[in-house]
Design brief:
Layout: E1 6-11, E2 16-21, H1 24-30, H2 33-44, E3 58-62, E4 76-81, E5 88-93, H3 97-103, E6 108-112, E7 119-124, E8 127-132, H4 141-152, E9 158-161, H5 164-167, E10 175-177, E11 181-183, H6 188-194, E12 197-203, H7 214-230, H8 232-241, H9 246-252, H10 274-278, E13 289-293, E14 303-306, E15 325-326, H11 330-338, H12 345-358, H13 362-378, H14 383-386, H15 396-408, H16 411-416, H17 420-426, E16 435-436, E17 439-440, H18 450-458, H19 471-474, H20 490-504, H21 519-529, H22 536-557, H23 568-572, H24 587-598, H25 608-614
């Protein structure tokens, strides 16, 4: 049956911890993780709630395949209302703590209220308690992780924690687990810190042994692993280069947003690419990349472990940053590099280390810095505003200084921590904020990849590539090639990717498997692991149900069709170079058809018939 059927409810205000049975009727309709936890959330939380109030809830949740033998079955998500966006937030993470929660016997942990003092939750199988974290408040994630391992004298505990940025109110703070994996977007870490919850520590020894049909499950799992192994992306490209395999590819097709999305190609991309991370340095005979790394149960191993050249990068004055840690992935390299115009690989690696250490989303951070750099260039802000930092595009020194300040929540870094929209509004230029629903864009320019423009505009959690990754089709030809420069067929493509991704996010599997897998590869694993009917038809319906449920929550929170748009720059300023030269994004041609396919009104709300069909 795959689920543990156990939910832990932690009331931080009262200091109580209770067990309750998982709602299996909902599980049959929403599967798990993203879908099921969001169902719990929308049933229990007022859409108008202040994200940082005690009335907002936060759910750490696993999927039915989390902790199993399924490849990449180590995922967990955090569901809440995001403070950056005011929209539904579901942030997904890998590493090992998801499988640890499941092995401890829990499908999800629901946090309510706010503790009077800093605490952390310690879970060891059935036993759970809230412990004093006042001595941990003010510490980074890395220092907190080290202290908790020392305190509990168990090298096998898994820790998810927030850093100083979350404590200081950075609106895009992350929850970091296993030192450099993160539930990274929309400010879920900020919500956690607002509850005076510093960390969640888990030790699980029960394992996951409740698979419905073990023989059929292992047959499906082994077949899926072979597909991943034989695929050029999941079997070769991602293990060798990680997601950084995309840096040069996306740049060459003219879809790499550069200098706050004014340009679509970055001349320094090759210097910060996956290939560059492999190059041996003359200064110390080492490469930036030390090795790749895998999350729980993963056969892809796209994670990066890197080391800084301390002889080159003199800004780094602490030996703590000279050792190997989580290296650059594509989104972080793009946001910290292309978008700010910085092509210093060591500077980006150091900035990424800081984002990991104190738990901030490098996508939102880098994009906000890029907006600040444009404000600085135009004279809207000066050194008086930045605390003396010469915030020029291309300045590695400026990037690293502002990273340090933002992670500590100090000086101009505290304003950067508000995100791009609030920053640009504060200084009178809201048009320079490259956001959708207040969330910053990831690393794909919608002028060069038209479908991604529609995916960004309609994403339920604000601009996001992982809610409908049409790049797979428009650039890589997965599962079939579509022209990235046309709008033909894109509404149907976006809807299909969004619904399928909602299913994958609800299983406990990693969405990167879909570079090789379709739902046809995943369905047999779900059907063998879980009781109930999990046909392809049922899974498509589940994905659509989840998407519409999230949409309805956002509608009730105040979002309308007016929020399904892109910044003016992307709609009116054509690309100046590359294959997309002369093109802006043609959202207006795609959006009405998308609404029709969704079964929504022209105002962007699900019709009565759609709600009835999906049981909403």
């Amino acid at each position: 049956m795959a689920w543990t059927r156990n939910v832990m409810r932690v009331n931080l205000t009262k200091g109580t911890i209770k067990r309750e049975p998982l709602n299996m009727e909902w599980a049959m309709e929403y599967l798990g993780q993203r879908g099921l936890a969001t169902k719990y959330f929308v049933e229990e939380v007022d859409p108008k709630v202040d994200p940082l109030s005690p009335e907002n809830k936060m759910i750490m949740t696993t999927g039915p395949l989390t902790g199993t033998m399924a490849s990449t079955g180590g995922r967990y998500s955090v569901v809440t209302k995001g403070p950056l966006t005011g929209a539904i937030a579901c942030s997904n993470s890998g590493g090992f703590i998801g499988a640890e929660i499941k092995s401890a016997g829990w499908d999800m942990i629901i946090f309510e209220g706010r503790s009077k003092k800093p605490v952390y939750l310690y879970v060891e199988n059935d036993r759970a308690e809230l412990l004093d974290a006042r001595d941990l408040w003010g510490k980074s994630v890395w220092d907190t992780d080290h202290e908790l391992h020392k305190r509990h004298q168990d090298p096998l505990i898994r820790v998810a924690a927030v850093g100083r940025a979350a404590e200081k109110g950075c609106l895009y703070a992350a929850i970091v687990n296993d030192l450099h994996r993160a539930a990274g977007r929309s400010g879920v870490g900020t919500v956690m810190a607002s509850k005076n919850l510093k960390a969640v520590v888990v030790r699980g020894t029960r394992g996951v042994g409740n698979i419905r049909d073990p023989k059929a499950f292992m047959k499906a799992v082994n077949a899926g692993k072979k597909v991943l192994h034989d695929n050029a992306v999941t079997g070769a490209g991602l293990p060798k280069y990680g997601t950084q395999v995309l840096m040069n590819v996306i740049n060459e097709i003219g879809a790499s947003p550069t200098r706050n999305m004014r340009e679509v190609q970055f001349e320094g991309a090759s210097k910060i690419s996956g290939e560059a991370m492999h190059e041996i340095r003359k200064s110390d005979g080492k490469a930036n990349l030390v090795t790749n790394a895998a999350c729980f149960g993963c056969t892809i191993a796209c994670g990066r472990i890197s080391v800084i050249d301390k002889n080159h990068y003199t800004v780094v004055n602490s030996p703590k940053y000279w050792g190997a840690s989580g290296g650059l992935e594509y989104e972080a390299a793009w946001a910290l590099g292309n978008d700010t115009g910085v092509d210093d690989l060591d500077a980006l690696t150091y900035a990424n280390f800081l984002c990991n250490e104190d738990g901030i989303d490098p996508i939102s951070f880098g994009s906000t810095v890029a907006a600040a750099m444009e404000l600085y260039e135009t004279g809207a802000i000066t050194k008086k505003d930045t605390g003396g930092i010469d915030l020029k595009f291309g300045s590695a020194e400026a990037l690293t200084k502002i990273t340090e300040l933002t992670c500590r929540g100090e000086g101009f870094g505290k304003i950067i921590g508000l995100g791009s929209r609030r920053l640009c509004e504060k200084y009178g230029h809201p048009e320079l904020s490259m956001t959708v629903k207040s969330q910053e864009f990831p690393a794909y320019d919608p002028r060069g990849i038209q479908g991604m423009g529609l995916a960004y505009a309609t994403s339920n959690r604000g601009a996001c590539h992982l809610r409908g990754y049409t790049v797979a089709s428009e650039v890589m030809g997965i599962p079939e090639k579509t022209d990235p420069l046309t709008t033909d067929g894109k509404p149907a493509l976006v809807k299909a990717f969004q619904d399928a991704t909602a299913v994958v996010d609800s299983t406990g599997l990693c969405v990167f498997t879909t570079f090789a897998w379709t739902l046809n590869d995943i369905q047999p694993q779900i059907a063998a692991a879980c009781e109930g009917d999990w046909s392809m038809e049922k899974l498509h319906e589940v994905g659509e149900r989840i998407w519409n449920m999230e949409r309805m929550f956002n509608n009730a929170a105040g979002f309308t069709a007016r929020d399904d748009t892109l910044p003016r720059r992307l709609l009116t300023e054509p690309a100046r170079t590359g294959p997309a030269r002369g093109k802006a994004n043609m959202l207006d041609k795609m959006l009405p058809e998308y609404y029709r396919l969704r079964g929504w009104t022209p105002e962007g709300t699900p019709t009565k018939e759609t709600r009835a069909r999906l049981g909403l």
